[in-house]
Amino acid sequence: MIRITRQTDYGIVLLSHLASNAERRYNAPELAAEAHLPVPMVAKILKLLAREGLLVSHRGVKGGYSLARLPETISMAEIITALEGPIALTECVEESGVCAHEPICPSRSNWHVISRAVRRALEGITLAEMIHPLPAAAKLVTLGSGRAAVSAPANI
Amino acid sequence: MIRITRQTDYGIVLLSHLASNAERRYNAPELAAEAHLPVPMVAKILKLLAREGLLVSHRGVKGGYSLARLPETISMAEIITALEGPIALTECVEESGVCAHEPICPSRSNWHVISRAVRRALEGITLAEMIHPLPAAAKLVTLGSGRAAVSAPANI
DNA sequence: CGGAATCGGTACTGAATTGGTACTGTTTCA
DNA sequence: TGAAACAGTACCAATTCAGTACCGATTCCG
User: Fold this and answer.
1) pLDDT tens for each residue of A90-127
2) Straight-line distance from CA A140 to C1' D5, in Å?
3) How many angstroms away from the CA of B78 is the closest CA of chain A?
4) What is the 3 state secondary structure string of B74-118?
5) Is pLDDT larger for residue A112 or for residue A149?
6) Which residue of A120, A130, A141 is in closest CB contact with B116?
7) Contact A141/B98, CB-based, under 8 Å?
8) How far apart are the first and last CA of chain A?
9) What tens digit of pLDDT does each residue of A16-25 get?
10) Rounded-to-integer distance, Cα B49 and Cα B83, Å
11) With the CA atoms of A131, A134, A135 and A141 taken in that order, what torsion angle do they form, in degrees rounded to the nearest 10?
C-alpha cells in the first residue's frame, strides 16, 4: 500500500551509499557501478537531488557529488519530497477557497490528518539510521533481501 | 510525496460517509449522490471493500452496503491496504532467498524500517477519527477544502 | 589555451498503471 | 416472476513512469 516510485527507491539507495562513504566524492558512473543501478537513471537522480539541495555537485573533470549535510540531519521525508516532487496537494489546496461550495469537503479535509501522520513518521527516520546496522527491534521485520536492478517500486 | 490512488481517496470518503450514518444502509447510487462521486466508480469501490471484508453487502431489491465493523476498529492502514491491493512488496520479498547474491541488498533492506514507520502511522488513525470534528491540534493543518469530484490523487 | 571529463537541462519514447465504462450473471424481495 | 441490487470480469483511453538521448556549461589538466 502507498507506492513510492522506483526513482525514489533508487535515490534512497544512492544517498545511503554516499552517506556510508561520506569522505569520498562520487561521480555518476562510479555510484551506478557500486549500487548496481543503471547509469543514466543514476545521473538523472543525482541531478535532481543536487537541484533540491540534498547533494552538492562539483563540475569539471574531477567533479562529482557529495552530501550537502550530515546524514543525521537528512530525513526520509526530505528525500522523498525532493524526488517525488511537490506535485501539489490536489488542486483544492492550491487555491484555498476555490470549492467552498462543495459540502462534502469537510469530511475530506481530514486527509490532512493522514498526511501529517505519514509525514511525521518519515521525518523521524534519518539517512544515518538507514546505513547503520539495524537496531535489534527493527531486525525482526527484515525478512528478505531486495534485488536492486530488477526490483519493482516498493509498496509500503 | 507518496501517492495514494484516486480510488483509495474515494474509498475513504465513502467509508467516512457510511461511518457517519452508521444506522442507514446505502446502495451504490445513493452513496454516489451524497458523496458527489461518479456512480460506476462508487459501485466498483464498494464491491472491492465488501470483498475485502470492510463492508457487508446485502443483495436483492432492498440491498445495499453497511460497515462490517465499528468505525473505531477500522484503521486507515486497513482501508488503504484493501484498496491499493497487496501488490507484493517488490519481487525480492516474495521469494526470500532469490537474490542473496546481490551485495547492495543490505542497504536496501532498511526499506522495511520505513515501511513499518508509515504503516504504524496509518494504523494509528481510525475511521472514527476521520468523521469527528477535528481535535484542535489537527485543525491547524486543515488549510483548505477539497473538491471531491475533480481532485487529483492526494499526495501526502 | 584547448581538449576532455563531468554536471545541468530538456525533450522524447515505450510500457505500465490508473481511471473509468460496459456487460453479464446472481441473489433477493414483492 | 420480474425488478432491483450486488458480483465479477473484461475492456479502453489517458496519464504517469522508467529509461534514453542530446546539447550546453563548467572545470581541470596537460
Assistant:
1) 444 443 344 434 444 555 567 778 888 888 889 999 99
2) 47
3) 9
4) CEHHHHHHHHHCCCCCCHHHHCCCCCCCCCCHHHHCCHHHHHHHH
5) A112
6) A141
7) no
8) 5
9) 999 999 889 9
10) 7
11) 140
Q: In whole angstroms, what separates CA B77 from the centre of its chain?
A: 7
Closest residue, chain A, to B17 (C-alpha): A107
B120·A125 Cβ contact <8 A: no
From residue B133, give the alpha-carbon distance in Å to each of A34, A52, B10, B147: 51, 37, 20, 19
| Residue A26 phi, psi dihedral angles, 5° rounding | -105, 145
C-alpha cell read off for A33: 557501478
- Residue of A14, A30, A40, A51 lying closest to A148 (CA atoms): A14
pTM for the predicted model, two decimal places: 0.82
Between chains, do A134 and B111 touch, taking CB under 8 Å as contact?
no
C-alpha cell at B117: 514507520
Tens-place pLDDT, residues A45-76? 999 999 999 999 999 999 999 999 999 999 99
For chain A, give percent helix, strand, coil, nearest 5: 50, 10, 40
- The CB-side HSE value for B35 (13 A sphere, CA atoms) comes to 29
Find chain A residues with C-beta within 8 A of B13's C-beta: 104, 107-108
State how far the Cα of B38 lies from the Cα of B102, in Å rounded to an integer. Answer: 47
